[in-house]
Amino acid sequence: MSKISSRVSTISPSMTLAMSAKAAELKAAGEKVISFGVGEPDFNTPEHIVQAAKDALDAGHTKYVAAAGLPALKKAVCKKLKNDNGLDYKPSQIVISNGAKHSIFNAVFATVNPGDEVIIPVPYWLTYPEVVKCCGGTPVYVYSSRESGFKVTAKQIESAVTPKTKMLIFNTPCNPTGAVYTEEEIRSIAAVCEKHDILVLSDEIYEKLIYGDFKHFSIAAVSPKMKELTIVINGVSKSYAMTGWRLGYLAAADDIAKAISSFQSHATSNVNTMTQYATIAALEGPTQPMEEMVKAFGERRDRMIAILEDMKALGLDYVKPDGAFYVMLICDKFYGKWYDGNRISGSMDMANLLLTYEKVALTPGACFGDDTCVRLSYALSLEEMEEGLARIADFVKGIKDN
Predict the structure, then answer these.
(1) pTM to 2 decimals?
(2) 363, 351 in Cβ contact below 8 A?
(3) Are 297 and 325 contacting, i.e. CB atoms less than 8 angstroms apart?
(4) Are 174 and 150 in contact (CB under 8 A)?
């Protein structure tokens, strides 16, 4: 008899672990590894947020608080959702958790029963299907394309609906593609969800990282019915450079929020108290540091795109991202070819060979359900980005037909 539960045994191991370990080994050996794999801002948390945490410690705010979060923080989240998204929630509908990932797990665990189907657009953030499987659900994949800008349509989603469909996981701005859905696209998708009474887990963690003329629109804002069907997921990791602080939050209908709050009270209790005070400062404090960070990301995105445009002549391609801080680099033209005696069969091979020969770390698209690409993050300095892209170009020039 296996000592491992069936729930955990369904989870696939991370395909990036071996690569991360190899990159760390190379760095420890003194190699200059340029990493495009990082999924966090390379900026320090703004000082006023750090100071709020220090002040909380000095004031003795080191005890347990309510499992679902400080009342003051929940009120700040309600204010944020109203001001930024036009959404009215009560504090009782907010649950503060240990990062947006924790919020996502709570939401799926509280709503998805064994055998329920959950629609997931591809490419997806690699944790989505694993959470669904862990909770006994069945991932149902809907595939986007580079021609569609890595966005799925309402028609595609409706074609995937069955009597077992319970939820759609919807992520805009999207990790890994940087795709941002327009309000019109979102309203069309919402119409399908309303028609079939499908819950939507709306992951909006990259909400403030949008460039150009695009604007974020929450699917929960479509209608009162859609708001009841939507579990809004957000947090402070990406927008406020607070990845290590571990605080996410969700907003949901009363019954769902109550169930999640009850579950969290037994699973983890409250998020660490000083982080909650720091997050109040993040949500209510000055916006200039975050605006400067977004501006810097926009400049890096533009520089990366300019370089990638020149690299098209080498056989590479990309889809311009409008949000987050990632670009999907399309490299499947090289599959079946060879580099220094090594056959390239897919994105894992591309990533492994780039790390081995050029000391460039990136994330294989296979991790996100699309093996035709590798993901590049531009959460690194312009100097490192330019050098890393030059190394990728040198690598591609060395690929042979046989």
Answers:
(1) 0.96
(2) yes
(3) yes
(4) yes
* Amino acid symbol at 118: V
3-class SS at 339? Answer: strand
User: Tell me: the pLDDT tens digits for 282-329?
Assistant: 999 999 999 999 999 999 999 999 999 999 999 999 999 999 999 999
Residues whose CB is less than 8 angstroms from the CB of residue 4 and which lie 6 or more positions away in sequence, other chains included? none
The per-residue pLDDT for range 251-271, each reduced to its tens digit, is 999 999 999 999 999 999 999
Strand partners, 234: 249
CA 100 centroid distance within chain: 9
For residue 106, which of 206, 280, 274, 251 has the smallest C-alpha distance? Answer: 251
| CA dist., res. 146 & res. 104, Å (int) | 27
Question: Smallest Cα–Cα separation from 217: which of 198, 226, 204, 234?
Answer: 204
Count Cβ atoms below 10 Å from residue 244 Cβ, excluding itself: 10
What tokens does 155 get?
Answer: 């028609």
> Omega into 289 within 30° of 0, i.e. cis?
no
Residues 328 and 375 sit within 8 Å (Cβ to Cβ): yes
**Residues near 147 by beta carbon (within 8 Å), at least 6 away in sequence:** none
Q: Interior CA angle at 59 toward 53 and 64, to 5°?
A: 80
